[in-house]
Amino acid sequence: MQKVYWKQKVKNKSGYKDPTVLASERPFIMNEIKALYDLFNRVNSSIIDDGLIQKEEFQHVVFRNNNKQNIFTDRVFDLFDVKHNEVTEFGNFLCFLSVFHPSAQ
């Protein structure tokens, strides 16, 4: 039952109908995708719970301070932010993190 609930949340927040699609497109297994989704949700709800990570939320999580800006966090977030609108979706977040997976080429 929990698995169905999780799939429904992914569809609503990230645009993906089934997290198994994400697992087939990325080097992550389902448990890793679920853990990354939980992390994504903790970050995206740190200031505004809208299903997206705002640049401000990312900086808040990294520094625990919204007023502190850093060129490193700006550049890292810009890699997540493929639409250049200062927010990122779960799919983009997962895509970026996949380059750090041990089996990434």
From TrEMBL:
Q: What GO CC terms are in its UniProt record? A: membrane
Domain of life, per UniProt, equals: Eukaryota
What biological-process terms (Gene Ontology) are attached?
Answer: calcium-mediated signaling
Q: Which UniProt keywords apply?
A: Calcium, Membrane, Metal-binding, Repeat
| GO MF term list | calcium ion binding; kinase binding
Q: Span of the secretion signal?
A: none
Where it sits in the cell: the answer is: Membrane
What's this chain's function?
A: Acts as a calcium sensor. CBL proteins interact with CIPK serine-threonine protein kinases. Binding of a CBL protein to the regulatory NAF domain of a CIPK protein lead to the activation of the kinase in a calcium-dependent manner.
The record's comment on protein family reads: Belongs to the calcineurin regulatory subunit family.
Provide the assembly information. Homodimer. Interacts with CIPK.
Protein name (database record): Calcineurin B-like protein
> Which organism is the protein's source?
Gossypium darwinii
